[in-house]
Amino acid sequence: MKKLISFMHISLDGFVAGPNGEMDWITLNNEIFDHVGRRIQRENTAMYGRVTYELMESYWPTAADKPNPTKHEKEHSAWYKTARKVVISRSLQNADLPDTTILSNHLPESIHALKQEPGNEMLLFGSPSATHALLDLNLIDGFWLFLNPILLGEGIPLFAGVKDKTKLQLQNSRTFDCGVIELNYTVAGK
Fold it and tell me: Fewer beta carbons within 10 Å, N or C terminal of the chain?
């Protein structure tokens, strides 16, 4: 069965964005881009909340076409254009959205159906609100976190309003030269 993994950059004090959604604090470099690129190339289903999807859709389809694109922009743009996108939204309409499925109702049934499809994992990119909703429904199977060496003090917390204690099991970790630590957790019992 395919696993649903929440992929996030997080500050040391637990925030995934600043108070106004700022993400300029996230540390990225070629070592991280290459590492993430290798993992996402193995799968072709990406899940997003509406806000994150709109950000991705405004940039990635044409990122490789801009003057002097980086290796990462070329590779991720090519992957994004062919990836199946699943968007959790009550307001987004499904008109003219290539390779995109909108989930607005019956999330448990819809997610369980997606988990039955071939593959090992679906990555839920960013999308703290979608992560909160899916965590409340016990649909998240794991977390792929990139712990950034910064304290934000305030912002959007990853685990805001968690209703039940959720035990996680560390699968592996990696430290990058820039000080970011990758943490891969599975939800215990899944």
Answer: N
Label each residue of the chain as H, E or C.
Answer: CCEEEEEEEEECCCEEECCCCCCCCCCCCHHHHHHHHHHHCCCCEEEEEHHHHHHHHHHHHHHHHCCCCCHHHHHHHHHHHHCEEEEECCCCCCCCCCCEEEECCCHHHHHHHHHCCCCCEEEEECCHHHHHHHHHCCCCCEEEEEEECCCCCCCEECCCCCCCCCCEEEEEEEECCCCCEEEEEEECCC
112-161 pLDDT per residue, tens: 999 999 989 999 998 888 998 898 899 999 999 999 999 999 999 998 87
Which tens digit of pLDDT belongs to each residue from 68-116? 999 999 999 999 999 999 999 988 876 677 789 999 889 999 999 999 9
Q: How many residues are there in the chain?
A: 190
**How many other C-beta atoms can be found within 10 angstroms of the C-beta atom of residue 8?**
19
Quick one: which of 111, 158, 132, 135 has its CA closest to 10?
Answer: 158
Distance CA 51, CA 87 (A): 9
Map out the domains of the chain as residue ranges: 1-7+32-145
